[in-house]
Structures are given as C-alpha cells and as structure tokens.
C-alpha cells in the first residue's frame, strides 16, 4: 500500500535480524495543489532525493534536497509546473529507498 507512512527495508543478509531501520515519511498535504512538504525522519545523515513517476512508469520529475542530517526534516515539494494527476514518489535517502503516492489537484 503506497499510503503507508513507514516502510521497512532489510539491510542485512540475515533474515532473523529484528533491528531493521524504519524510515517514517509522509507528504503533507496530500492531495496538494502547488506545493507540499515531505516529512521524513532519517536514521542517519544522508543525501536525499526523489524521482517522480507517472502511473505509466515514466519519470516526469526529479527532486534533490541535498545532504540532510539524522533526524526529522520537512522538505519542500514545488509542484507548480506539474500536471494534475496521481504520481509515485520514489524517495532515496542514503541506503534507504521507498515509494509514496502523491496526488496533484487542480491549481
């Protein structure tokens, strides 16, 4: 489900490890018209970027927030030039990657 606020990704070869990190994230507001915020809690200092895909799988936008320190961040999403529709935001933060659903409404 793309509406999940946290996604767990395995970082070890052991399937018995229970200390896997969680990267909580959400887009506020969602749906949005022209701008919003990606709220994210980073488990470590990381470069943070996102690729935005149409539902057909075509990359349509790229966002780069640069280097962010461990902890909570509110990262601006400028969607003023984006078309109305539903998108998948693939966020990459260091070794972690996860997807969020993003909806753009009428402006």
Q: Briefly, what is this?
A:
With 107 residues, the chain is an all-beta fold. It is built from no helices and eight strands. The two termini are 27 Å apart.
Q: Sum up the overall morphology in one term.
A: globular
Q: What structural category arises from helix and sheet content?
A: mainly beta
Could you give the distance between the termini? 27 Å
Low-pLDDT ranges: 1-20
Describe the strand arrangement of the main beta sheet, using strand numbers. Answer: 1-2-3-6
Rounded Rg: 14 Å
Give me the count of strands. 8
Q: Descriptors for this entry?
A:
four-stranded antiparallel beta sheet, 8 strands, mainly beta, globular, 107 residues, 0% helix
Plain-language structure description:
By secondary structure, the chain is mainly β. Helices cover 0% and strands 59% of the residues. It has no helices and 8 strands. The chain has a 4-stranded antiparallel β-sheet, with no helix packed on it. It has a 4-stranded antiparallel β-sheet with strand order 5-4-7-8, with no helix packed on it. It starts with 5 loop residues before the first strand and ends with a strand. The model is unreliable at 1-20 (pLDDT under 50).
């Amino acid at each position: 489900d793309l509406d999940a606020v946290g996604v767990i990704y395995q970082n070890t070869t052991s399937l018995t490890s229970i200390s896997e990190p969680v990267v909580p994230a959400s887009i506020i507001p969602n749906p949005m018209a022209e701008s919003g915020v990606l709220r994210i809690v980073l488990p470590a200092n990381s470069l943070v970027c996102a690729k935005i895909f149409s539902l057909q799988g075509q990359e349509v936008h790229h966002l780069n927030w640069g280097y962010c320190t461990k902890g909570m961040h509110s990262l601006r999403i400028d969607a003023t030039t984006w078309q109305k529709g539903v998108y998948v935001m693939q966020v990459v933060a260091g070794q972690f990657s996860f997807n969020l659903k993003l909806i753009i409404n009428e402006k």
